[in-house]
Amino acid sequence: NELAILEFIHLLVETMDRHFGNV
């Protein structure tokens, strides 16, 4: 499950980075 959590966090961080990048 650790891999799944890391993948989820990576997706979340990438989404946030993309969101703040548009601002």
TrEMBL record:
Alphabetized Gene3D superfamilies for the sequence: 3.30.450.60
Coiled-coil region(s): none
InterPro entries for this protein: AP_mu_sigma_su, Longin-like_dom_sf
Pfam family, one: Clat_adaptor_s
Residue span(s) of domain AP complex mu/sigma subunit: 1-23
Annotated protein name in UniProt: AP complex mu/sigma subunit domain-containing protein
